[in-house]
Fold these 2 entries.
Entry 1:
Amino acid sequence: MSLASILTAVIAIIAAPVIGGLLTGIDRKVSARMQNRYGPPLLQPFYDFFKLLGKESITVNQTQMVYVLGHLFFAVASIVMLVLKSDLLMLIFILAFSGISLIIGAMSVRSPYSKIGAQREILQMMAYEPVLLLMVVGIYLTTKSFMIQSIFDHGTPLIYSLPLVFMAFLYVLTIKLRKSPFDFSTSHHGHQELIKGLTTEFSGIQLAIIELTHWYDLVLLLGMIALFFANPIWVGILIALGSFFLEMVIDNISARMTWKWMLKATWLIGIGAAATNIIWLYLKV
């Protein structure tokens, strides 16, 4: 790996949580205004993060921290692969390992809230992972490579060839970000009937690491949206920010649905749209 690649990776590792934290602050502020509230300061996510670092961690078992660190490590690895324009298929698999690490950590305790949250997280992964894999297949059929660099070398933005795949990815983005109507496993809002579900038994520094990982995931997912408009990249960034605002609107106007409805709707709409786009590409070639 060249010095430039190492420097790029380091900058991404440092900058991603800063951007993710700011976007989370904007999310909370805009959501509050949509609900006719003043809302917290823009930097409140950072205040909460450092406050969690200073709190005592009540560990139920000794393996919890291992799983939480695995959750963070795989998320960081995914961000590094994105900025270095590496293998997109491997990135999706590593991102899945990040989610699985958190699920195992939640399942390693006896709390019924944590276990039910982990089970719901598994259902959510069953819903969105096939769409992500179909997205990679569609990109491969378009660029003839799994490498992210090939997207930039392709010349024509992916959105022209993969409009339905893009719409399917936006659909599962709501699930991946755990926003209404798909906030089954855990939620940033107070209306979650499972208390905190997936993260019930995490506290202190462990909860801070989970929140930090969420910031990495947020930047990664928005970066993947930008890939559909990679030429020029600044257009992709603007579209990604617009998509994030759309997610905030959906989160605030939607009520939580059941997991059965989520699976049926995602497999029908998400997988159906992506598969249709891929079949069209295959026949076109």
Entry 2:
Amino acid sequence: MDKNLRLSFEFFPPKSDNGREKLIEVRNQLSLYKPEFFSVTYGAGGSTRDNTKGIVKEFNESGFSTAPHLSFGGDTEEDVAALIEEYKNAGVNRIVALRGDMPSGMGGAHQMVYANELVAFIRERFGDHFQLEVAAYPEVHPEAESYDADIKYLKQKLDAGANSAITQYFFNPDAYFYFVDQCQAAGITQPIYPGIMPVTNYTKLARFSDSCGAEIPRWIRKKLQSYGDDVFSIKSFGIDLITDLCEMLIDNGAPGLHFYTMNQIEPTATILSNLGVKPE
């Protein structure tokens, strides 16, 4: 794999001390692949904010570049500015800026929740201190009016000052390449990094994919269904499938890979090894 390709790994904040210790071990192992950064997700309406903040600050202080996911949710501008200031003071220099989901019970209260507004807000308050990542949807955001409207919205986020985009995961490489072509035709010049979801559990993957708008091609669904409860076969097929996907992406010009690790070292490490990326 080309050394110029950017690698990044995404975690979610664990809820227990055991989960935290395990995540530190996973981070230490994945750090051997020299990722540009780790990222840590943020629950709906900021529901995991303190956990996210704790993990990001701890990892960053340990010498690992770590980006918090951030959205407005139900917070005020002052609360969000204070949180970003805290990250800045802790040495954090990258943020994944998202629209996020409103916390339940917020009703019709107007909040500044759109990601392009969050990007503009961060640029206005903090200048160029942060590298800003935003989300992109090769297979269209579930709430988008249309394919073109979704690209227009991505352009607004990038025009507001974001440096690059990370995609929702997908299994059809054509969806990514067509999306990148359409983005370039719309005047987007910033890199769009493909999000990669390793396959380990068909039932969970199918449920999550249906809710977030990620298409599992019929032949892949049928193949995974045919294995039933045979976990070894599901994982083995998943490793081959995602290795082939990554190879196709890299061979055709993708600028890097962002892995949704689900806080596990495997199968991400095996996929990277298949791609010729060895731990140092």
